[in-house]
Amino acid sequence: MTEKEETKRKKSAMKKKEGPSGKKEIEFTLYAPEFREVFLGGEFNSWNPQTLPMKKDTHGVWRTKLKLPVGRYQFKFFTDGAWFEGPLPDTEVITNPFGTQNFIKEVL
């Protein structure tokens, strides 16, 4: 197999993994059994705190999946009517213009 053919094969395999749209399915999770409702807000939905509801599993973990293109995304959780300010283990943060912190999710 030539180098050009190998490169084409690798690109084709990557597209299959990413799906036809070039987006990857990414899961967002928050362990917070005490909350009654949780929504996801971020750059991917214009920070709308009502459009991406999350579902709580039996262990108190809230989950949702999104298909996103490769990139870095700022996000937060909207929990019981307020933006969640608590820490997320192993998650990068950035200070926003309001003086609080947004979380970062990198899609590779």
Give a written overview of the molecule.
This protein is mostly beta strands and 108 residues long. The protein has a single domain, classed as Immunoglobulin-like (Sandwich), CATH 2.60.40.10. Helices cover 15% and strands 41% of the residues. It contains one helix and eight strands, in the order H-E-E-E-E-E-E-E-E. The protein has one helix at residues 3-18; strands spanning 24-31, 38-42, 55-56, 61-68, 71-79, 82-83, 93-95, 101-107. Strands 2, 5, 6, 7 and 8 form a five-stranded antiparallel β-sheet that branches. It has a three-stranded antiparallel β-sheet with strand order 1-4-3, with no helix packed on it. The longest helix is centred in the first third of the chain and has 16 residues, at 3-18. The radius of gyration is 17 Å and the shape is globular. It starts with a helix and ends with a strand.
Alpha-beta content class: mainly beta
State the CATH class: Mainly Beta
What's the total count of β strands?
8
Gap between N and C termini: 27 Å
What is the CATH architecture annotation? Sandwich
Shape: globular
| String of helices and strands | HEEEEEEEE
- What's the mean pLDDT score? 87
**What is the strand content?**
35-45%
Range of helix content: 10-25%
Biggest beta sheet summary: 5 strands, antiparallel
How many helix segments?
1
What value does the Rg take, in angstroms?
A: 17 Å
Output the CATH homologous superfamily.
Answer: Immunoglobulins
How many separate domains make up the residues?
1
According to CATH, what is the topology?
Answer: Immunoglobulin-like
Uncertain stretches of 5 or more adjacent residues: 6-17
